[in-house]
Design brief:
Nucleotidyltransferase, domain 5
């Protein structure tokens, strides 16, 4: 084995597994994404283990707790301190970690009335966060928040654009004829941070993104400019967005026209053609954003950077890509085997079109 360390722990001992993983990541023996991919664990659990190890060292995993996890763990003193933290709008997870009690014990105390949470402020569960997100999205113009219109359109009870999808055809240099762009928002203790991103439908790769503390047109312009710089898209590439005012601004349309791209917007009440972008934002929030509590805008930006640039584009597989990552998918289709597959797919599509035109 040379000088490489050997780590071992009992089967099922998650505490020692997280300690071992955190040690290996912090010492540079491996990367977090390698642990996640090899053992099939969640990114948030590894991030928490690394954070605990950096802040408190071995004591975070090995030091015996002052109180045992039993039915008497919620003593009057613990109840009083828990209520103080909750009144200060601390999350359930933060309270459990601060007082070194199990999350389930804390939730039980809240449900049976021994503890009370402030109304409408604490992001204590995924459903709670969804409500807060929907409230924050008021006025943003994102089609995904108009669930009533979306349902009525799907049922044929509301006039709207025809739901239609057309195949994306690849072009030289790995580009595509269509990309999606949208804005979402991330809560920090300093206020809201806004994320504008551009997604390549061809490979599901995030090819450009930018964050700011406001939703001015410069936010989406900067995100698209980064995508253009990175991808050098061909003339005529369609950049599809929702009906947000930022995408109708002169500054944004001038950039689109300058590079001879085509701007496209969802019809009123129809968000289906931007579903892939909304799916990415949902994945980002579920796997990264909602697992953290950001103190500053910079902390949120660093988290988004790590997720997109080191995990999502490089290591996260997609069933729509044949269980490949965005970058591996692009590498495959730029290889001789990929070129052959594209030619075969093009011939099959041509045959289908001819059959459709001449039934």
């Amino acid at each position: 084995m040379g000088s490489y360390p050997v780590y071992s722990h009992a089967h099922g001992d998650l505490r020692m597994f997280h300690l071992t993983a955190a040690q290996m990541i912090v010492t540079g023996s491996c990367r977090a994404c390698e642990v996640i991919r090899t053992f099939g664990v969640s990114k948030s659990s590894i991030d928490r283990a690394v954070r605990k190890y950096r802040e408190r060292g071995l004591d975070a995993f090995l030091k015996a707790r002052d109180s045992q996890r039993s039915g008497t763990v919620m003593t009057p003193e613990v109840i009083e301190r828990s209520q103080e933290l909750l009144d200060g709008y601390a999350s359930r997870r933060a309270v459990a970690d601060e007082l070194e009690i199990s999350y389930g014990t804390l939730v039980k105390a809240i449900r049976d009335g021994r503890l009370n949470e402030p109304d409408g402020e604490v992001l204590s569960s995924k459903s709670d966060r969804s409500v807060i997100d929907a409230q924050a999205a008021e006025g943003m113009g994102t089609a995904c928040t108009r669930s009533g219109e979306r349902l009525l359109t799907a049922m044929g009870l509301l006039q709207g654009a025809e739901i239609r999808f057309e195949p994306c055809r690849d072009v030289p240099n790995g580009g595509v004829l269509c990309a999606l762009a949208d804005i979402t928002y991330i809560q920090t203790q300093q206020g809201w941070s806004y994320l504008a991103a551009v997604l390549d439908i061809y490979s599901r790769k995030i090819v450009g993104w930018q964050m700011a503390t406001n939703m001015e047109a410069s936010l989406v312009v900067s995100g698209l400019a980064k995508a253009i710089e990175d991808r050098c898209p061909p003339k005529g590439l369609i950049v599809h967005t929702d009906r947000g005012s930022q995408y109708a601004s002169d500054e944004y349309l001038e950039l689109v026209e300058e590079h001879e791209l085509k701007s496209s917007m969802s019809a009123k009440g129809n968000c289906y053609d931007n579903a892939t972008m909304e799916s990415f934002f949902g994945t980002l929030k579920t796997e990264e954003i909602w697992e953290r509590e950001y103190k500053t805008h910079q902390e949120a930006r660093a988290s988004v950077f790590e997720y997109i640039e080191t995990y999502y584009n490089r290591d996260r597989i997609h069933t729509s890509l044949g269980n490949q990552t965005p970058e591996s998918f692009e590498r495959f289709f730029s290889s001789p085997a990929g070129e052959e597959k594209k030619r075969a797919a093009g011939a099959a599509e041509l045959q289908r079109n001819n059959k459709h035109d001449n039934p």
